[in-house]
Hints:
Blueprint: E1 4-5, H1 7-10, H2 15-26, H3 37-40, H4 42-45, E2 53-58, E3 63-69, H5 74-81, E4 92-94, H6 101-108, H7 112-119, E5 129-131, H8 141-147, H9 154-162, E6 165-170, H10 181-193, E7 212-215, E8 218-221
Parallel strand pairs: 1-6
Antiparallel strand pairs: 2-3, 2-6, 4-5, 7-8
Amino acid sequence: MRQLWDHMHWKDIKLQDIRQAILDRSKFSPLVGDIGMRELMGLSLAGDRSPVGIYIFSTADEIYYVGKTHGRSLAERLICHLDSRTVNPDEHHTVAEGDTWESIARARGASVAKIKKYNKGKDLVVGEQIKTTSNWSMSSLVGTMVRKGDAPNRVEAVKQVMEMRTTWMRIPPPATAPRRHQEHVEVIERRLLWTQAARPRLNSERGNGHARFGVEGIAHTRHLELCVGDEKYLARSGNET
């Protein structure tokens, strides 16, 4: 599994050094477009019951995206980011005199329950608009690339991502607190997202310019000397250890 960056090789890297370490490691990582299904599912095939962690998309000199997996595997997350479909806007209907939920649903060819669900308990008021469709909304890397101007459209964005390298930072359950595995994954992700750490180009910078952040009610501080995989916070009171 060329994309796998073993925990023991990165856990003690300081935040001030992690960006360059990721770029150096990614030279050995496969291109997204070159990863086969057997390689992508390598951890599951090896019997890993919890193949969760951090995935990184990068080029030779830029880190584009840092993401985490909790309930889904890398294979599932990767495919979601490559969805090139354009999202259509929701459709609306202006309520007229005599309209009922039944008549609106019948005209749309939908059930009353579905139309009401789209409108979340909203009352029918003449002259106001209600939704008659609620289209899917896919949170994807290619969508972000288009929105931020890194690609002219989703198809071109997919082509660009296929040429990026994928590095997978597996995060095993903490030995001292295995039931806090998902929390630990999120903490490590937030450390990497810091603008003075990995500084990925396409992740939101909201909240990532500050030294402090919170996860599961516990306050954390990011600083340059902090090691990426530091687990000392797990011994604090307030959460099950």
